[in-house]
Amino acid sequence: MREHDAIRRFADEATVEPDAISRARAHALELGADPVSPTVGAQIAVLAAATAALNIVEIGTGGGVSGLWLLHGSPRATLTTIDKEPEHLAAARKAFQDARIAPARARFITGRAADVLPRMNEASYDIVLVDADPENVIEYVEHGLRLARVGGTVLVPRVLAGGAVADPVKRDPIVSAYRSLIHETQASPAVLGALSITGEGLLQLTSVGGR
Length: 211
Description:
Blueprint: H1 2-14, H2 19-31, H3 38-50, E1 55-59, H4 65-73, E2 78-83, H5 86-98, E3 106-110, H6 113-116, E4 125-130, H7 137-147, E5 148-157, H8 173-187, E6 191-196, E7 202-207
Parallel strand pairs: 1-2, 1-4, 2-3, 4-5
Antiparallel strand pairs: 5-7, 6-7
Helix pairs in contact: 2-5, 3-4
């Protein structure tokens, strides 16, 4: 266990967060938002870059931190970000301005994801980030997989629930939902799934169209 903690600490300390994202993180924390960690942010930036993502949607704005990481990885992408908290969206808008993200590259939608997602076009996005309302994570991932194009990826941070998912004694609804999500997607022929344990954990699901 100590070795695992040392590896995690090394990864945390080795990750360099751009200044604009670091400032956005500080503001997000002041608002009570819970943005993705720098290590997870770096991972999603790499995935955005590797897929040459052009169209990205995120469920849960987190004060703009995850969005900035995604656009950092794919400087040509357009991001649609959805959050029910206007204050979090306002913080993200300011963070994007400070980072000199062109206004045309970001669309901010205030509303409940359950209401917004059904109206969005299917198979239209390269990346869908799901980071809101953990009690609804399975529903949001189902929407995400519908929105992602074949070859597109759905990303779910925090999927390890602070380590509780690995503890068989823990069976509260959120832990059970994350656990079911991991097991069901690993067995699904419609996606390729990978689970990263860096930071707070990141589930990566790439749509293969039920091949």
